[in-house]
Amino acid sequence: MDFSREQLQDKNLFELREIARENRVQSPTKLNKEELISQIVEASSQRVKGLKIRPVSRPSKLVDAPRRNAQNDVPEKAAESINEIMAVDETCEEREGILEIHPDSYGFIRVRNCEHSEKDVYVSAIKIRKAGLRQGDMIKGIVKVAYDNKPAALLIINTVNGVPAEELRKRPRFDDLVPIYPDERLKLENARSKNDFAIREIDLIAPIGKGQRGMIVSPPKAGKTTLLKKIANSISENYPDVTLMVLLIDERPEEVTDMQRSIKGEVVYSTFDTNETMMTEVTKGDSQIDLVCPSEYSIQKLKEKNLLQPLDMSDGDYEYISNVYPAIRDRVESIFGAEMNGYFVPYMWGTLGIMYNVEKVRKEDLEAGWGILWNKANNPELEGKILVKDSVRDVYAATVCYLKEEGKLDGTPYATLSIEQLINTVDNTLLKMCETVLLEQRKHIKGYEVDFGKDDMINKIAYVDLAWSGDAMYAIEESYNPDKTFKNLATGEETNYLLDYFVPTIEIDGEEKEFGNVWFDGWAIPKTAQNVPAAKEFINFMCRPDVAMRNMMEIGYTCSFNPDKYIAGEDEFTIEAINCLIENEYVCEILDDEIAENYPDGDCIIKEIDGVKYDLTEFFGDHRRYPDFKKSEGTLGVMQDFGAQNDAVVSMWERVKGGDEFPWKLIVAIVACVAIVAGAFGLCFLVRHVKSKRQPHIDADSEQQTA
Fold first, then answer.
1. Which domain holds residue 168?
2. 403, 397 Cβ separation under 8 angstroms
3. With 474 labelled, which of 39, 58, 138, 447 sits at a CA distance of 20 to 30 A?
4. Are 364 and 377 in contact (CB under 8 A)?
5. What percent of the chain has a predicted confidence (pLDDT) above 90?
6. Which of 145, 144, 119, 121 is nearest to 133 (CA)?
7. How confident is the model over 664-699, as pLDDT tens digits?
């Protein structure tokens, strides 16, 4: 095909190179754009005069694919290295990731843990077909960087699963393969694990071989993840040539982080560490997620964007969904409207509070309330040992509560607002007040954390942490030491738990009440869900009393199941739920005389199962484990979406985290440089001074000798 010079000017460098190859232009990669155009025009004119030129290959045109908002196909040319391409086009770079093929035959290279991200690379259907790519292939190649909100596009495939792209056609289909049974053992025991009986027992009783399949089954918190880490570390130690991958499904983000730090291998995981990550996933048009469990404000945003479908429960028997605590549904309706209850099912809920080390935090520190995050009681043990959650919403709630308890809102329009109104008020004046005190807070804290706060508290790296109740419960349980007692400085009591948790209180109408942020997570079905009936059945299953309670025991947060039904219910699943509490030692068998002794006023919760009486008071009466939701009205508020003010809040938070850190570092660096330069000049001066003292003496002696 012939092109005019004007037509060639409109084409990019890669298109020109392909046209040049078609016209037998020598070394097109060494020519710039103008040189390429001149050579192509000259070659075309020669062909017109009768010169026969055989094209090397049929070129593929680079065109926009409007439906997918990405560039289309470019043939693979292994001879062109990434350095050569980047030398002439700065918008190209090398990326690597897992190929996910869409039902419409095109695909994306997921560069971050098989998840959607801004770094994902579009792969055309033509390229997938020509190169013989398959779902799950590890692709490494050169991409055209994204522009104008378009995804990056794959230009050249370098390797697939570590093999040159041209060798792909030789690989067989997986369905045509025959199984290869394990015939090579992977010995786990080594010098580092010689005293680890678990590893030795696996070698003896359940040896692992290459190609082996196995399953670790145990009760909650028995150490499954720890055992998996030990196995992974043993394999990487004994067999460094083995490619190690660990797959974590629906693990907590902190578990993923711990696994990544603990093993020498790749960790593939599925989890949403934040509501924002989940929302990014759901808002993608090609999302194949059937069910999500976000926080209430995220559900509000998804509903407003018309990304959720209403939960029509008329097509089946979903009896357990109706067990949700009515007080929670009432709160949802009062805040978000009655329609909101038709889009999600509340599942877990909790509070925002303070997790603390009982050996370091004093009574006066707790009396400071939210002020403990600013070390208001001036406890020297807490300086630089306070962690704050890297969550702008939670920090904002804690900060406005601190402003209220310190009286900094007195005389302002904010003073008359309820707690719920206050934490949902976002304007420039209040934002400025929050920014001021948060910058002051930076002088006292260790830093901001996302998921490592629990570990730091357990390991005594930090002594105070702004935490969610479920995380606090998890950390408290992990801090239990049956062989050691800790003196609780706040209460004077001795305990086997190193950590504790509290929600600051405020006096309202002569009564001390907890005040701050309460939140709840719930099940919702995205509009793009493809397995809606299965999603509904799963929600119903998760709301079954025994399942909800066991999940509660595992993750630490409070389930939304109606506690009255736990106490009064006689069905098998409710009794199983109570048995779960008994197994976890939250409920104990009692005698009749013990009831009168422990509860003289008769204010106790008793459950009889098969003629045996159990005391449920400790669990359902524990404000940390199963708080009374009804009592939270008016003092524990639910935060809504910041809406139009969200960017302003985020900007404030970024300024706070940036704070005055850089200027201080700069000042220190400048002082250090000045000191070094001054020292160097001083040393030079001293050397010259010594030489000048010695030189006249030598000259005088020389003159005497000469004389």
1. 64-176
2. no
3. 447
4. yes
5. 14
6. 121
7. 455 555 666 677 777 777 777 676 666 665 555 444
CB 463 within 8 A of CB 446: no
For residues 101 and 231, state if they share a domain.
Answer: no
**pLDDT tens figures, 346-378:** 888 888 999 999 999 999 999 999 999 999 999
CB 391 within 8 A of CB 366: no
Q: What is the DSSP string of 690-704?
A: HHHHHHHHHHHHHHH
Q: Which of 168, 188, 177 is nearest to 239 (CA)?
A: 188
Task: Report residue 349 as tokens.
Answer: 């809920």
Is residue 601 in a domain? no
Q: Are residues 166 and 242 in the same domain?
A: no
Is the pTM above the cut of 0.70?
no
Task: Determine the pLDDT at residue 83.
Answer: 56
CA angle 57, 58, 64 (to 5 degrees): 135
Please say which residue of 232, 250, 270 terminates a domain.
270
Q: What is the pLDDT of residue 54?
A: 36
Predicted confidence band at 81 (pLDDT cuts at 50, 70, 90)?
low
Position 504: which residue type? P
Name the phi and psi angles at 599, rounded to 5: -130, 80
pLDDT at position 671 is: 67
Q: How would residue 76 be classed by pLDDT, with cut points 50, 70 and 90?
A: very low
Q: Check whether residue 356 and residue 427 sit in a common domain.
A: yes
With a CB cutoff of 8 Å and minimum separation 6, the contacts of 598 are: 604, 615
| DSSP letter, residue 280 | H
In this structure, is residue 639 part of a structural domain?
no
- Residue for token pair 């378009």: 150
Q: Residue 401: name the closest of 637, 632, 631 by CA.
A: 637
Q: Which amino acid is at 638?
A: V
Nearest to 586 by CA among 624, 623, 620: 620
User: From the CA atom positions of the chain, what is the Rg in Å?
Assistant: 34
Comparing CA positions, the residue from 136, 138, 155, 94 lying closest to residue 119 is 94
Q: Is beta strand 494-495 parallel, antiparallel or unpaired with respect to 516-523?
A: unpaired
Do 111 and 117 touch, CB atoms closer than 8 A? Answer: yes
Q: Quick one: which H or E segment has residue 87?
A: helix 82-88
CA angle 635, 639, 640 (to 5 degrees): 140
Query: Do 155 and 214 reside in the same domain of the chain?
Result: no
Pair 17, 72 in one domain:
no
Total H helices, total E strands in the chain: 25, 27
- Identify the residue whose tokens are 């974590």: 248
Phi, psi of 558 (to 5 degrees): -90, 125
Judge whether 303 lies within some domain: no
- Grade residue 465 by pLDDT with cuts at 50, 70 and 90: very high
The CA-atom distances, in angstroms, between 83 and each of 22, 71, 90, 139, 191 are 24, 21, 10, 18, 44
The chain-wide mean pLDDT, for the chain, equals 78
Question: What is the enclosing helix (H) or strand (E) of 511?
Answer: strand 511-514
- For 294, residues 6+ apart whose C-beta sits below 8 A from its C-beta are 272, 275, 278, 279, 302, 521, 522, 524
User: Could you tell me the CA-to-CA distances from 288 to 131, 133, 531 in Å, in that order?
Assistant: 26, 21, 9
Residues 491, 377 share a domain: yes
- How many domains, in total, are found in the chain? 5
Among candidate residues 270, 288, 315, the one where a domain is terminated: 270
Other beta carbons within 10 angstroms of residue 340's beta carbon come to 17
- In this structure, the answer to whether residues 43 and 102 fall within a common structural domain is no
> Same structural domain for residues 371 and 423?
yes
H or E segment and range at residue 389: strand 386-389
Per cent of the chain over pLDDT 70 is: 77
Looking up residue 205, the CATH number of its domain turns out to be: 3.40.50.300
**Cα 463 off chain centre by:** 23
Please give the Cα distance from 369 to 366 (Å, whole number): 6
DSSP assignment of 626-662 equals S--GGGGTTTEEPP---GGGHHHHHHHHHHHHHTTHH
H-run or E-run covering 408: none
